[in-house]
C-alpha cells in the first residue's frame, strides 16, 4: 500500500486521527528506566504496543534518538513497528532540507535505513530539495507550512510580492503542495494546532492533501478547533500528541497511562467531527 492508503486504512480501522509522537527523553522515563538512554527502545516499544490500535500513525523524532547516540535503537524500533504493527504508518520526523546528492542521501536514510513510510521536510530550498524523496514510490513527504512555534511568523507569515496575488509564504507553500510539486500525490503539509485559522486557510488552498498537525496536548493546541478547521472526509488529518501521551505517568503503569490518554484524545478528536 502507499502511505496515503495506509493512513486512510488506519483512520478507518482505528477510528482515529491521533498520531503518537515518539520523542524519548530519558530524564522523563519512569521508575528504573529514568535517565538510562539504553532504554529508549524499550520505552518507545512499550508505548507503541499500548497505543497501536488507537491511532492513525506513529511519528518518531530523529533528534531525540541521535542526541543520545541511539540511532541503532531507532532502527530496532522501526523494525519492531513494521513487524508488530504493519498497518500503522510511521512518519519519520526529520525536517530535512537540502539539495542534490545530499538530499538523495537523506531520502535513503529515511526510507532505506529506517524504513519510514513518510518523512517531514523543510521546503525552503525549493522543489529540488523535495524531489529526491518523491522518487520513492508510495512514500509520503510532509512539507513544513505553518508551524506551531511563535517564530514561524518571521518567515511563514510574510507576503510574497513577486507571486501573483501576493500570498503569504505559508499560503504559497500550500498551493505548491496541492499543485505543481505534488507529482504523484505523495505530499502533505505540516500545520500547527496553535493556529486553527491558518489550518482552515491551508485547507481551503489544499483541500485534498493530508495535514500533519502537531501542537495538541502539552503545546496547548485546541483539539476541537483543530479538527473543525482541518478535517475533511476525503483528506486525512494526522493530529500529533507526544509528551501528553508518553509521560502520562511517571510510574510503572506508564504504558497503561499512555493508552488511557490516547483513548481520551482519540475520542475527543473523533467527537469534534460532529
Characterize the structure shown.
This protein has helices spanning 3-14, 40-51, 62-66, 71-84, 100-113, 131-134, 153-156, 169-178, 196-205, 223-230, 243-246, 254-272, and strands at residues 18-22, 57-60, 91-96, 118-121, 140-146, 187-191, 211-213, 237-241. With 274 residues, it is an alpha/beta fold. The chain has a single domain (3-272), classed as Aldolase class I (TIM Barrel, Alpha-Beta Barrel), CATH 3.20.20.70. The chain has an eight-stranded parallel beta sheet with strand order 2-1-8-7-6-5-4-3. The model has no long low-confidence stretch (mean pLDDT 95).
**Amount of helix:** 40-55%
Number of strands: 8
CATH-scheme architecture: Alpha-Beta Barrel
| Radius of gyration using CA atoms only | 18 Å
Secondary structure tally, helices: 12
Strand order of the largest sheet: 2-1-8-7-6-5-4-3
Q: Determine the CATH superfamily.
A: Aldolase class I
Low-confidence stretches: none
Topology-level CATH name: TIM Barrel
Structural class based on helices, strands and sheet pairing: alpha/beta
* Overall 3D form: globular
Main β-sheet, in a few words? 8 strands, parallel
Average pLDDT taken over every residue: 95
Through-space gap between termini: 29 Å
Strand content: 5-15%
| Element string (H = helix, E = strand) | HEHEHHEHEHEHHEHEHEHH
Count the domains.
1
What's the CATH class label? Answer: Alpha Beta
Spell out the key features of this protein.
8 strands, 42% helix, eight-stranded parallel β-sheet, alpha/beta, 274 residues, TIM Barrel, globular
Task: Kindly summarize this structure in a few lines.
The protein contains twelve helices and eight strands. The chain has 274 residues and is of the alpha/beta class. It is globular, with a radius of gyration of 18 Å.
Amino acid at each position: 500500500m502507499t502511505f496515503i492508503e495506509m493512513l486512510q486504512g488506519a483512520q478507518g480501522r482505528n477510528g482515529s486521527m491521533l498520531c503518537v509522537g515518539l520523542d524519548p527523553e530519558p530524564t522523563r522515563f519512569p521508575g528504573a528506566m529514568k535517565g538510562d538512554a539504553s532504554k529508549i527502545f524499550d520505552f518507545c516499544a512499550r508505548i507503541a504496543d499500548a497505543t497501536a490500535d488507537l491511532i492513525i500513525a506513529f511519528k518518531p523524532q530523529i533528534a531525540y534518538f541521535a542526541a543520545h547516540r541511539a540511532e541503532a535503537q531507532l532502527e530496532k524500533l522501526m523494525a519492531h513497528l513494521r513487524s508488530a504493527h504493519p498497518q500503522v504508518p510511521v512518519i519519520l520526523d526529520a525536517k530535512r532540507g537540502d539539495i542534490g546528492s545530499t538530499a538523495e542521501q537523506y531520502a535513503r536514510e529515511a526510507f532505506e535505513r529506517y524504513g519510514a513510510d513518510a518523512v517531514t521536510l523543510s521546503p525552503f530550498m525549493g522543489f529540488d530539495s523535495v524531489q529526491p524523496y518523491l522518487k520513492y514510490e508510495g512514500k509520503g513527504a510532509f512539507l513544513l507550512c505553518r508551524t506551531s512555534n511563535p517564530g514561524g511568523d518571521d518567515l511563514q507569515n510574510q507576503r510574497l510580492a513577486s507571486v501573483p496575488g501576493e500570498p503569504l509564504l505559508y499560503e504559497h507553500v500550500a498551493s505548491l503542495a496541492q499543485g505543481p510539486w505534488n507529482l504523484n500525490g505523495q505530499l502533505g503539509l505540516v500545520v500547527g494546532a496553535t493556529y486553527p485559522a491558518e489550518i482552515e486557510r491551508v485547507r481551503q488552498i489544499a483541500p485534498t492533501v493530508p495535514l500533519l498537525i502537531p501542537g495538541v496536548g502539552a503545546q496547548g493546541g485546541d483539539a476541537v478547533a483543530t479538527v473543525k478547521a482541518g478535517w475533511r472526509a476525503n483528506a486525512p488529518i494526522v493530529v500529533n500528541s507526544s509528551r501528553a501521551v508518553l509521560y502520562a505517568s511517571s510510574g510503572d503503569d506508564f504504558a497503561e497511562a499512555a493508552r488511557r490518554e490516547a483513548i481520551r484524545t482519540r475520542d475527543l478528536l473523533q467527537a469534534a467531527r460532529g
